[in-house]
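Operator note (shift B, R.M.): manual run for Reverse transcriptase Ty1/copia-type domain-containing protein requested after the automated queue skipped it. Running by hand, logging everything below so the morning shift can see what happened. Input copied straight from the record, untouched. If output looks odd, do not overwrite the archive copy; leave it for review.
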Amino acid sequence: MHEELENFERNHVWDLVELPPNCRPIGTKWVFKNKQGEDGMVVRNKARLVAQSFCQKDGIDYEETFAPDFACLCGLQMDVKSAFLNGFMEEEVYVRQPPGFESAKFPDRVYKLRKALYGLKQAPRARYAKLKSFLLKSGYVMGSVDKTLFLLSRGGDTLIVQIYVDDMIFGGSSHALVSSFAE
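Run finished. Output pasted below as returned.
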């Protein structure tokens, strides 16, 4: 749980603030998962703090939730660690302090989100918007039919990147181009 909250701090996900009048905070909860090795033995315990999005109201807590996705996966794959913590919030959203990690000094305060939190209805859209902006600024061209497909041409070589939720698959005609993207 501490590792998860350190990710939040490192990614500047939220600020501890007083709840403004007429605002309703969204609850949070911990989700636990055991990562298993090939032999089925637990190799790591993971905790993820998620928003309780079932209480979000359309038009109040979020406007848009659509984020394109890709149905067929093949090729090289990369999981983006803490991917949803990178997307900036367009809406003003407040969440309660995580259970068991309330501030002793300010127990009645809430967190105002700067960036998306796992479980929010708009988190995939916010993550996609941030990644799309980065790729376009880096010289990639977005597919005209598939909005999750991005192409980069450099000196006769091509790199293809496909986004799928918090994963990416990619490949290209140059080992150097593929390696530089993976870094």
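Quick read of the result: The first helix runs from residue 2 to 10. The chain has one domain: 2-182.
Leaving this for review. - R.M.
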